[in-house]
């Protein structure tokens, strides 16, 4: 099958690229035009991601999800690959982009220059990283994404953001250099950068070359772990995420998942079987557990809501890493469900925090311990907002806040519970089925998962009481409908995920099943048919320089 | 030649890492630049060090006299991206200097 469906594969990269470039032609004052272009691009991305998701869910037998750029065959040319996992990530990125963009349109997009272009380029980098089939293009798309994120992080300026941005950029530049070292070590030992080709060749590599390859892969792994925020590589993350403006932090919720995506992809495709099987799984397991512990302590210790949300990102990443380290199919399917649920939750929470904190004076939001001392200070309204005060603002905010708390702590009835339940059933249930003793590490993970949920519950309750019940003298925050709707939409999506948990889990299980049998992926990439070429012969000539 | 290249990469990486860990923003950016030169040379070296060899495969050309063109392509891309991100970082450093009044990476001087 070829034709328009296959050409659709490159659209998630081209659309934001073109939209971002087009936006540069308009002056900053033409906000309506810029907003229109941006929204149209994001909606188009949702439509395309959903259709790719549907095609991918038919399975590789019916949809050949390989796009060869310039019609060059796979190991030589660049390929884009859509399978269930990349389609899932594309959908997640695009449905996260729409609410955050709408939220930004209410006021944040006017806080600095080129917000919309940077936002589109960030989406391009994200989509490219999910689609690419070779390691070097992964680097390129990572850099596109990061370069845009540098700009977005410092959107709105101010000493706090610039300071956090400085650390963030320094860490990520160093990580980019590690990326290059890892990629070139892999190329030097395996002679290929195409992931499918690498998976084929890894079986034939012996001795010193294998050691170089594994060292390269480990260096590459460190880069993705920095991105995912594994302890002790994550000290930049809380500062950066809590300093960013609300919509930016919302879309950043998926950026830490890019690292997880690549780790999942490479560990199952390249290091799924053979001599190097299970490379670094222990690092993931114990590092992930340490991250959960670190994040939990951070959640308990946070006074400001922004930091609480940032540490929740760490808990979410740590949970995913630890669970992926178990390398158990059922558990991984639950982890994918958890990834979708927690990304939506954290994004909603970041957006909500800014609305909630608007009602408080600056002192209260910085340090609750000293709140009493600050409480007597003048309660001046800091910024005069344009817009209507929603009559039930506090009620709606409170319900959303409670929903976020339930989702973060993994209590029933929302999807956070379903996700944690799925993971734990996979972990403990597998032992029951085979009558084998459950390893101690599994009990540790289960305990950490429950404790991190409890910590989230305690912190959220404490923050909620302080914000909604105790602040008698606080003013009702002025919230625009345009700002409330995205939060509600994100929470509604987690609700939909809860209701449709059955079909969603089946999709995740099929995804993991596909990942555990990489032969289909490899075959699809290596034997992809070229357009307009009858027989798979050699390349059509020397190629010009 | 391999030895010279390896020593060169090693010295640049060592200096780069040391400078990266220094507290002044100027030292950090010079450290990152040195590291990126070292990495570029490293990418160049993984294709095998050869002199006087063309990366173009033609009729009757012996494979052993051929140099691998892929690392060349990679290193070009890496140079471009590294250059752009370094320039961007420089702007951020200047902004931080302007906003905080110090060139310390933490935005404030350490207490003496």
In words, what does this structure look like?
The complex is a heterodimer of chains A (545) and B (112). Chain A is mainly α and 545 residues long. Chain A has a domain at 280-363 and 392-499. Chain A has 22 helices and 2 strands. A two-stranded antiparallel ribbon of chain A has the order 1-2. Chain A is globular, with a radius of gyration of 23 Å. The model of chain A is unreliable at 362-385 and 535-545 (pLDDT under 50). Chain B is mainly alpha-helical and 112 residues long. Chain B has one domain (2-49, 68-100). Chain B is 65% helix and 0% strand. Chain B has 3 helices and no strands. Chain B has helices spanning 2-20, 25-46, 69-100. In chain B, helix 1 (2-20) packs antiparallel against helix 2 and helix 2 (25-46) runs antiparallel to helix 3. Chain B is elongated, with a radius of gyration of 19 Å. The N and C termini of chain B lie far apart (47 Å). The mean pLDDT of chain B is 86. The chains are: A mainly alpha (545), B mainly alpha (112). The A-B interface holds A 136, 139-140, 143, 146-147, 150, 154, 157-159, 162-163, 165-167, 169-170, 173-174, 176-177, 180-181, 183-185, 187-188, 193, 542, 545 and B 20, 25, 28, 32, 35-36, 39, 42-43, 46-47, 56-58, 70-71, 74, 77-78, 81-82, 84-86, 88-89, 92-93, 95-96, 99-100, 105-107.
